[in-house]
């Protein structure tokens, strides 16, 4: 048994069994009125004490069976010498039920009860119902007690494992929530730096460049403006490095296309029935996109694919990233159950979903559309205009 479960109860029961065995052995030795009976009680006590302190008896069923066989033989010898040994059958019941498998312990208890009854009759005692009822009733009580305790123990173990699983699940959920919160905060900071600080520095640089062009070459302010423009350019580069450092980890080790391809791997590589088979493809000539574009497209793909896995019951899905002359588009299509787009409501916590995807696309000047109908699958499409200098 697991030492973490019911250890105080097990120790108390073991102590009570030792005291019961010792008391009955002393009673048998005293009531035997013969040196042979006393010697038999001492021998049985020695066998019992030896087995109680042998670790192999508690860890090996084979060793326990051998010990019980020797103990039973010494008890039968004592039973032959004195009828008072009859009472030792009761602790033997518990030992047999505790140390042996059920398919062996129940026959052993039956044989022990039968031997107790026969010895009582063999010593010439008068036959009466108590001769048969006593040992049998004791055996029944022992069987009911041990089997009931084992059932309670199994239930306790089941609940202990369930509690451990709940604690582990709660810890994993808390870790996942912290990780999600960290990623969301990183993304928010990256978006804020890009939309405010980086854009402001870019505007300052453009204004200083325009001021340089209208100033006379020999103007004393030209040098100051040049240095200010260089400082703005350096700080803009630093702000862009911050944005890249705060971008999602999926984008740190490759392009957007590689991140989207990795996004499909856990779904396509899962067990049958765990999710749809997802295929990823790229159309057109890929170009380098600004970090906010990559972040938005990756997050929209993640949200759309998560909705497909959770709600669509789809067997297939396809993610397509298309680079066009003046725009980049992302399409996520599945063959699931579909839904009525007009009936979709924003989540109560303002979390992920279609409204969040639409907000991401529109914040970058893009468009977001959803085409779906019950039983006809779902198609999610987002299109972002390519910034100047990034056209394919």
Question: What key attributes describe this structure?
Answer:
disordered N terminus, 11 helices, 5-stranded mixed sheet, single chain, 392 residues
Oligomer: single chain
In N-to-C order, the SSE pattern is HHHHHHHHHEHEEHEE
Beta-strand percent range: 5-15%
Structural class: alpha+beta
Q: What do the pLDDT scores average to?
A: 78
Number of helical stretches of at least 4 residues = 11
Give a written overview of the molecule.
This protein is of the alpha+beta class and 392 residues long. Helix content is 66%, strand content 9%. It has helices spanning 7-32, 35-53, 55-59, 61-81, 89-99, 102-122, 129-214, 221-245, 256-268, 291-312, 354-363; strands at residues 277-283, 316-323, 327-334, 367-372, 378-385. α6 packs antiparallel against α7 and α10 (291-312) packs antiparallel against α11 (354-363). The two termini are 69 Å apart. 24% of the residues are buried.
What's a quick, concise take on this entry?
With about 400 residues, this protein is an alpha+beta fold. The protein has helices at about 5-30, 35-55, 55-60, 60-80, 90-100, 100-120, 130-215, 220-245, 255-270, 290-310, 355-365; strands spanning about 275-285, 315-325, 325-335, 365-370, 380-385. The relative contact order is 0.05.
